[in-house]
Structure formats: C-alpha cells, structure tokens
Amino acid sequence: MWELRSIAFSRAVFAEFLATLVFVFFGLGSALNWPQALPSVLQIAMAFGLAIGTLVQALGHVSGAHINPAVTVACLVGCHISFLRAAFYVAAQLLGAVAGAALLSEITPPDIRGDLAVNALSNNSTAGQAVTVELFLTLQLVLCIFASTDERRGDNLGTPALSIGFSVVLGHLLGIHYTGCSMNPARSLAPAVVTGKFDNHWVMAETSLPSPPPETHLAGRAWGGISKPSTVLLLGPPWSLGSTLQV
C-alpha cells in the first residue's frame, strides 16, 4: 500500500490514462470513413503503430507506457509489477480509452463517425476464428514487449518504442480483416461504450478477463524458454522487466 503515498505512482497512473486516451483518439480517428479519402488497411495499421511508438517513447520512463490491459496483466503474471499497480493501471487505461473515444465522437460529424471503428467480426469470420486470431496477435505483441525491454540482453536492443510500434502495425495488417484488430481490451471497450454496440464484444475482450489470458502465459513461457537460462529475473521498476541475478 506504500505505493499509494508515492507521487511517482500517481504520475504513472495518470500517464497510463493520458497515453491510452491519446492512443484511442488517434487510432480510431484514423479509421473514420471520410468520403474524400476512405482509410486503407495500411493507413490504419500505421496510425495505431505510430501512436504506440510515440507514446512509449514519450511516457515509457514515467509508467512503462503499457497502454493496454493485456500488457499490464502480462507484467503482473510475470511479477514485474504489483497487483495494486496493475489494478490502477487497468482502471486508468479503460477510463482513458473511453474518454478518448468520447472526445473523438464529439468532434466528428455524425455522418462521419459511424460506429467509431468498433471491433466486430467481419468477412464471415466465426467467433472461434476471431478468438484464435486475437490470441496470436496479442501473443506476438506481448512477446515483442518482453523481448525488446529485457535488460538481460547484451546485444544492441535498439529502441523498444520502434519495435513495439512495428509489432502493433504487424498485428493490424492481419487482424483488421477478421475483427478490426483489437490486441487491446481498452481499445475495444471504448467505442463499444460510446456507441452502445457490444455484439460479440467478448471475442475482443477475452484478454481482459479476471483470470490471466492464455496469450500472456504463452508469451511469458516462450520468452522465458528462449532467453538466457543463466540469469534470474528480479522485480524491478515498473517500466522495465526487472534487474538480473547471475546464477
């Protein structure tokens, strides 16, 4: 409970709120159907990816820039953050996402806003197919985050913001054709709340269930199995995957 008395903790929670608000605002905004220039799959994928990359670079040192309940749950399962911090992060992310979608809805003409790019099954995809696709989309994202922010790596990591942004672009290039691509329960919840359209919402929200979703376990197991076995990961600051202990 000591975290609640920390100014850094309050700043981190607010950073998650603000980052998710901005992410949803720009991401959903890129998918609006303006008659003069209908959005392409590449445009939407790049907008979501650039938004994530920019926000990770800008706010990663404050909160870790999770911007995604699935990522926060993955960090919780991996013992990288406390349960209290995870609960506040998820609440901030959901509230920020809804605020971003509501703001976008208010400033967009009614005939343009449509359903605010709410996630839904498309191209005759079944619920089972959509769940499987979303599982793999989130799996590769969480695995990329684990790998690109692991301080145990001795090679040149480059910038995690860039690799994570590309991971989001990659997911959208495939997932848009199935579900509109969620990978983020907050991104899916926001337009659904604003528009009131919750058809098959459970498919996109499966990563936000109270029990840890399977993709977080798979990503953690995968990275734990292929990363250096001679090091033990210790709990570290919220923006990293922890410090290391050589054994």
UniProtKB/TrEMBL annotation:
Signal peptide: none
Entry keywords, A to Z: Cell membrane, Cytoplasmic vesicle, Glycoprotein, Golgi apparatus, Membrane, Phosphoprotein, Repeat, Transmembrane, Transmembrane helix, Transport
Membrane topology: Multi-pass membrane protein
Keyword Translocase: no
Pfam families: MIP
Catalysed reaction, written as an equation: H2O(in) = H2O(out); glycerol(in) = glycerol(out)
One GO CC annotation: basolateral plasma membrane
Name of the protein: Aquaporin-2
Lineage: Eukaryota, Metazoa, Chordata, Craniata, Vertebrata
